[in-house]
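Translate sequence into structure tokens.
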Amino acid sequence: MDLLDSIMSKMDRPPVISTQQKKLLKEQQKAAEEAKAKEREALKNFRKKVKHLVYNYITLKMILLDRRYGEYNNEFFQDSTRLKMPFEPMDRVGRSIVRDVADVAGLTTHVFGLEEDERWVMAFKKEYPLSEDELNAYRNGVDWDPDKAKEDALQRERQKKEEEERAKKLRKEPVPNKFLEKYERLVGKESGLKAARVLEANNKQFGFVSSEMKKDKRTIEETLADIKRAKKSKMSQETAKD
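Result follows.
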């Protein structure tokens, strides 16, 4: 017994764990459990997403492609009044599936919505007269009203015609002579015209120069040439005097 006690006393005792180490181990264990819980939740969401995508794909294929399911699933194609089909908002993969299936079915698709989780697809039949105005309305989140769009288009056309008529009228009308208008206001149109013409002729005869005629209408090249000739003439005169 003494020998056994002696041997046991010489053996290393298990290390003593401090309070800080215990706390650290507990935190690590908690983090590992949280990571496992997140992984389980991510896997659950992934399965749900895949299930949702497969369901959407099968439903769309039944609606758009497979003619074996009777008239109910082909209602969209058989109804000549239904020219477009909106789909609920979905993620990027879902939108890609919708566009692929619609393309095989001979439909045109456009994606609308600003935020990623709000983006949705609209499928149009080839014969649908899709306009840029309608596309812009959907892009801006506005409901498309064809009657209002017609009215707006007519209004724009009327405004365009009015502007063209106004521009044509301005081109046809002669530029008013302010000199003649002044006399027209004073003595009447006919008398004013006669008096203005007589006065204008007298001014020219007796040397009156209007401000319009006083304006220098020469080009820059003509002005420089005149200055050069004047300098040359002056230098010739000074040389002759010497």
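Note: Residues 143-173 form one domain.
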